[in-house]
Write a structure and sequence with these properties.
Blueprint (H helix, E strand, L loop, with lengths): L8 H12 L2 H8 L3 H15 L4 E3 L4 E3 L1 H27 L3 E6 L1 H8 L3 H7 L4 E6 L13 E6 L6 E5 L4 E5 L22 E4 L2 E2 L2 E2 L3 H7 L11 E3 L2 H9 L4 E5 H10 L10 E2 L5 E7 L6 H16 L10
Parallel strand pairs: 3-4, 3-5, 8-11, 8-12
Antiparallel strand pairs: 1-2, 5-14, 6-14, 7-12, 7-13, 9-10
Helix pairs in contact: 1-2, 1-3, 1-4, 2-3, 5-9
């Protein structure tokens, strides 16, 4: 919904009327009567000393001066709306952050209390969603996004250089089944994360097995997820072995909830990563900047490779 700037009533009426070229439709958008719109336009023309609209019995169009002024008015109102939004956010006590479920559940949320201790007066609102939110329409301040980092009009900082390795619960290894070499994994239930998008497919067990020199890998029945967070939780619960992103399993490895039975890791698509993203025009706002710097510091402390069971 457009932001109404105080003192711009006449400009706003002219912008809407010039966009619709119909006073009735303009009145419906503005919540006025067609007569009120006509009166405001007439008054605006008298003050400017130019005719803005050419009217006939069947149609209406902007005059040449009207076209010049309408383009300038639209640009000015858009600029004022953006500036007003920035002004509000510069003194805001609320930060709205959006992130996909995996990075939110396995990395951001477990750390967010540290940021809130640094900024105790800030109300942090988390939007956990697989959808790419629109910063303006959804009133988002900061996003963590998975992609190539090519976000026009945005500041985007890369968070991790992930590797992918097998991880499992240490309890799983207590079973009377050896796990001495990669081929032994075929004696365990494998947990799969199936994801493809933006022209790439996330590395799977077949790719890891090929890297381990196993060309006759038989996938067999397993447990399949479309998202990493529940797949990692299934591994923590002892339900199988999963290929875990190093950033997403770092806390679970550090706590001993997961172990890495083999050191071999593979990399994801090199151009893809998690990025912290905000509009370029608001990237310097104090709260947005503070959150970005904190996230980047936390990302730098997150291990980029996983830990073996032998340490």
């Amino acid at each position: 919904m457009p932001l109404h700037i105080p003192g711009t009533r006449a400009l706003r009426t002219f912008e809407v009327a010039g966009r619709h070229l119909n006073f009735t439709r303009a009145a419906a958008e503005l919540g006025l009567t067609p007569a009120a719109v006509s009166h405001q336009i007439k008054e605006f023309e008298e003050r400017l000393g130019v005719t803005l609209f050419q009217r006939t019995s069947r149609s209406m169009r902007l005059t040449q001066p009207g076209e010049i002024l309408h383009a300038a008015t639209t640009e000015a109102l858009d600029g004022l709306a953006r500036a007003a939004a920035r002004a509000r956010k510069s003194s805001a006590t609320q930060l709205k952050v959006t992130a996909p479920a995996s990075i939110a559940a396995k990395w951001l949320v477990p750390r967010i209390d540290e940021f809130m201790e640094l900024w105790p007066d800030i109300d942090v609102r988390m939007d956990v969603s697989p959808n790419v939110r629109d910063f303006a329409r959804d009133d988002i301040d900061v996003a963590i996004r998975w992609g190539k980092g090519d976000y026009p009009g945005m500041r985007a900082d890369r968070l991790f250089d992930d590797t992918i390795s097998p991880v499992c619960s240490p309890k799983l290894l207590e079973a009377n089944r050896p796990l001495k070499e990669p081929r032994d994994l075929m004696n365990y239930r494998l947990i799969h994360v199936s994801w493809s998008g933006q022209g790439v497919t996330w590395p799977d067990w077949r790719m890891w097995m090929l890297a381990a020199g196993i060309k006759d890998f038989d996938e067999g029945p397993g447990l399949h997820f479309a998202d990493s967070a529940p797949a990692i939780q299934a591994a923590i619960d002892g339900q199988g072995v999963v290929l875990g992103d190093s950033s997403l399993v770092a806390d679970d490895l550090a706590s001993g909830r997961l172990v890495q039975p083999f050191e071999l890791s593979i990399k994801g698509p090199p151009q893809f990563a998690y990025y912290i993203v905000s509009p370029a025009e608001t990237a310097g706002d104090p709260l947005v900047r503070a959150f970005r710097e904190w996230v980047l510091e936390e990302a730098a402390k997150t291990p980029s490779g996983t830990r073996s069971m032998t340490g």
